[in-house]
């Protein structure tokens, strides 16, 4: 007899997400010579970061992994803590419940369900944008406001939606005549939206978007992602 890799049997497609979470946790955190089915209930956050990064790169098929600032945002989300420093999180451990049992505050889904939605969207529609580092993605709405509020009118960036599973949104700054600034978030685009019209073409269409944060003209940043038929028609 021999032990197999972890297997989860499901009876409906809506169980797929939770099954993937179980297999991921078992693969990443079980001991080689363990008693069958015994897996740690808590793991170091640092180990979780490595696992999420490897999963993201493998699933999206990209060589551009998660960055330090992405881990910081993910830690704030999974621990529901916006006061701790990056170093504070490094010494913490994360539980299975925090990963895929407890519903995120004010949402209807778990941390893993949200992360898996981001994975699926990026794999299907955003791989080239992510690989070109055009999407910050893992960043809070509050921090986006802090970054953009001091920027010129029309500066924008892309972040993964907090409120919708598998959505990417564009945040941009509008500066008034009096110099005051307001940061607006465009309704998130889903994989279905982006299959109808690509992200690059949507950015091209939106006249209020001028420079990708911090200061790259949008045509320079996204020009290679515009639909060539549209460019030819101009």
The helix/strand order is: HEHHHEHHHEEEHHEEHH
Chain oligomer state: single chain
Hey, roughly how much beta strand do the residues contain?
A: 5-15%
- Do you know the CATH topology? Recoverin, domain 1
Rg estimate, integer Å: 20 Å
Biggest sheet architecture: 5 strands, mixed
CATH architecture: Orthogonal Bundle
Shape, per Cα inertia axes: globular
Structural class label: alpha+beta
Helix content class: 40-55%
* Number of E-state strands: 7
Highest CATH level, the class: Mainly Alpha
Q: Could you state the CATH homologous superfamily?
A: EF-hand
Considering the chains and any ligands shown, give keywords for the structure:
234 residues; alpha+beta; Recoverin, domain 1; five-stranded mixed β-sheet; 11 helices; STAT_linker; DNA-binding; SH2 domain
């Amino acid at each position: 007899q021999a032990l197999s890799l972890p297997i989860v049997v499901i009876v409906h497609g809506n169980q797929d997400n939770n099954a993937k979470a179980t297999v991921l946790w078992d693969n990443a955190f079980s001991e080689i010579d363990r008693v069958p089915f015994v897996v740690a209930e808590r793991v170091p956050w640092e180990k979780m970061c490595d696992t999420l990064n490897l999963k993201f790169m493998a699933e999206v098929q990209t060589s551009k992994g998660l960055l330090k600032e992405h881990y910081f945002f993910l830690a704030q989300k999974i621990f529901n803590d916006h006061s701790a420093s990056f170093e504070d999180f490094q010494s913490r451990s994360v539980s299975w419940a925090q990963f895929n049992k407890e519903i995120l505050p004010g949402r209807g889904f778990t941390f893993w369900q949200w992360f898996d939605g981001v994975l699926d969207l990026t794999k299907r529609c955003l791989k080239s944008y992510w690989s070109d580092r055009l999407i910050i993605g893992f960043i809070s709405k509050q921090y986006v406001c802090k970054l953009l509020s001091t920027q010129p009118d029309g500066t924008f960036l892309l972040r993964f939606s907090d409120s919708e599973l598998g959505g990417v949104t564009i945040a941009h700054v509008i500066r008034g005549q009096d110099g005051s600034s307001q940061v607006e978030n465009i309704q998130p685009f889903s994989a279905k939206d982006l299959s109808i019209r690509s992200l690059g073409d949507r950015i091209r269409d939106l006249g209020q978007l001028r420079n990708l944060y911090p200061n790259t003209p949008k045509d320079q940043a996204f020009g290679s992602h515009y639909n060539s038929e549209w460019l030819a028609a101009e």
